[in-house]
Give the backbone structure.
Amino acid sequence: MKKLFVLVLICFAQIVQAQKTYIYCGKLIDGISNAVQKQVTIVVDSGRIKNIINGYADAGNTIKVIDLKSKTVLPGLIDCHVHLEAILSTNTLLEVFTLTDADIAYRSVNFAKRTLLAGFTTVRDLGGSGIDINLKKAIESGWIEGPRVFAAGKIISSSGGASDPSNGFRDDIFHHSGPNDGIADGRDELVKAVRLQIKAGADVIKIASTGGVFELGDNNKKAKLTIDEIKAVVETANDYGLKVACHAHGAEGIRRAILGGVTSIEHGTYMDDEDIKLMKQYGTWYVPTIIAGKAVADSAKKGYYPPVIAGKAIAFGNQIQKTFAKAYKAGVKIAFGTDAGAFDHGKNYLEFGYMVEAGMPPMEAIKSATSNAAILLGKENELGSIGNGKLADIIAIDGDPLNDISTIKNVVFVMKGGTIYLK
């Protein structure tokens, strides 16, 4: 009996030992340091990083080894602005009338997997119909493969604002939208709209303080919420421990959002010097989405959209990279975000090239999608860097992104939470 007990203990010890994985890294960008480490072993156990060892540690016979000696290893990338349920096309406006929630959900499964395999192990999905919350649950339950999702649910805006589906259409085509749909006016309705999204399972609240590009007949430079209304949203979200992301193109809407206490400005296309000064003063994050501007402008030039949308799209594309360059040079805090869905999912990496082209060094661009993005999410103790105790979100690429940022698209290995999805 004693021998049997000892044998069981030995077998159990071997099983526990076998849970460990050693990852041999030729080069390691940890997401925090500016220095690149060479010949490093990352020890992964039970979904987390347990140790980082200089050199290639002896794994023995019971530890799984992943050989990435010829690769550059990074933390899993984070995209702070995606829409996994959407993809813009020539049919986008028509799809409002033709696609059911089920259609959208099935389509989003493919988009989620593409995003993960492109090296983005975490995303902040900034909303749409609310299906992003269901998608997040499906991924967490292991039903489908995709990135870790922080979901906003339905976007909250005023009547006639960026997410009002009836903009430009006859009133009798759509039912009158209200807080249940994310359309709210005044403090009471906005508080209710926030609470309904939290009840539905939102991790972050998304509002729109200006118009957008894709509404019919709307001017995306105009402010659509008052400072007091924005404060009501922020106070309510903060009561539940949630942050507020704000879609804003025009300078006045950006200014109101900052003064109202939002955590991040999304797009920020026409921000002015006063906005930049306030963003630095209040510590507001900027999520630029340069690739979205480039993509929608290109689509507009190809005739994808009616003239009222095309004009706004082209102006957005012409301005957004210039705004990013100005904000970066001024020292505004920047987190990586693409607005994926305005272009093909899985090509989120294109944003890095535009950031570098506008003057941001490659290492800073990488940090914007790792440690900086994790701070914006409030998850810097779990995500965004290769460090002891962090979740084992690890990717590897062929090439050196510090010498050629475009190589960041060459993803050959993806691990999320210790599970390998691409090797």
Summary: Residues 307-330 form the longest helix (24 residues). The CA atoms of residues 294 and 318 lie 7 Å apart. Residues 1-18 have pLDDT under 50 and may be disordered. Residues 77-377 form a domain with the TIM Barrel fold (CATH 3.20.20.140).
